[in-house]
Amino acid sequence: MKFDCVKFSGKVDYVRSVNPISGGHKIKISLDGAVIPNLQVSNKLYEELEAGETATLYGIFNRSKKKEKNHGVLYGLTQRGEKIFDTSQRFKVPVALAGFAVIAFCLMFVIGWVPSLFALGLLFGPNPDVFSNATVLALVEGSLAALFFLWRSQVMLSATANPEVWESIDPATLSSRFSKFHK
Fold it and tell me: Could you list the residue ranges that cross the membrane (predicted)?
């Protein structure tokens, strides 16, 4: 889950909806002649984007070595001096990751208990405490799996806390991250 939070500015040449998705659109946007494809945007932000206007866009983009798999989410924009952010996007991913943390804990506890029981039985032989030790070990395994997802959730929350300090990038540089197939 490698991603960048970047802001990029330029004159909006055009905005084209490629596919409507639930709650928004998947769009192509051209800024200063550089096409940025595979950009998911909420209906609210889509309606605010105007061709011919100069805008600063705030986006969250993944960093995959395979250019055809890269995509982004438009988090906010500044146009005509007005700042508009889709703050619901800020909380959707961390809440989903917290849900995945619960699922990961449950799965790792159940799946990890039996191998832990056999491993402890082989290491220490017949011991009346092997069940409680296996349960504790399975709890630790499940907790570690859940902590990974909670850590990534915290990274996402802290990254979206202050969009003004995000790295500024040229639209042409951002466009080079995407496959020519999508443009």
Answer: 95-124, 130-151
| Residue 170 and residue 155 share a domain | no
Q: Specify the pairing of strand 167-168 against strand 3-21.
A: parallel
Q: Which domain holds residue 53?
A: 3-86+165-182
Q: Helix, strand or coil for residue 120?
A: helix
Distance in angstroms (rounded) separating the CA atoms of residues 167 and 17: 26
* 61 and 96 inside one domain: no
Report how far residue 118's alpha carbon sits from residue 130's, in angstroms, rounded to the nearest whole number.
Answer: 9
C-alpha span between 37 and 92 (Å, rounded): 22
User: Are residues 12 and 70 both part of a single domain?
Assistant: yes
The Cβ of residue 20 has, within 10 Å, a number of other Cβ atoms equal to: 11
C-alpha to C-alpha distance for 32 and 34, rounded to whole angstroms = 6
Backbone angles phi, psi at 32, to 5 degrees: 50, 35
- At 55-87, the pLDDT tens digits run 999 998 887 777 777 888 899 998 888 888 888
